[in-house]
């Protein structure tokens, strides 16, 4: 597969260091990859939407339920 970077997002880890995460696309598949290329997730668009919704729901409820 040929991956095209469509966005980059800076995230902060528990040590306070920032890292760039790249969001890539190839056909109907997406990849979230750290800037070093040694950690990544690949998924199709349907499961990606479900994953993003679930992740948002978990983080949102953790922040606002305390």
Q: What would your notes on this structure say?
A:
The structure is a single chain. This protein is of the alpha+beta class and 66 residues long. A four-stranded antiparallel beta sheet has the order 1-2-3-4. The protein is flat and about 45 Å long. The protein has one helix and four strands. The mean pLDDT is 95. Strand 3 and strand 4 form a beta hairpin.
Q: State the end-to-end distance.
A: 43 Å
Largest sheet: 4 strands, antiparallel
Indicate the percent of residues in helices.
Answer: 25-40%
Helix count equals 1
- Number of DSSP-assigned strands: 4
Low-pLDDT stretches: none
Structural class: alpha+beta
If strands are numbered along the chain, what order do they take across the biggest sheet? 1-2-3-4
The SSE string, one letter per element, is EEEEH
Percent strand: 35-45%
Principal-axes shape call: flat
Rg (CA only): 14 Å
Mean pLDDT: 95
Q: Please identify the oligomeric state.
A: single chain
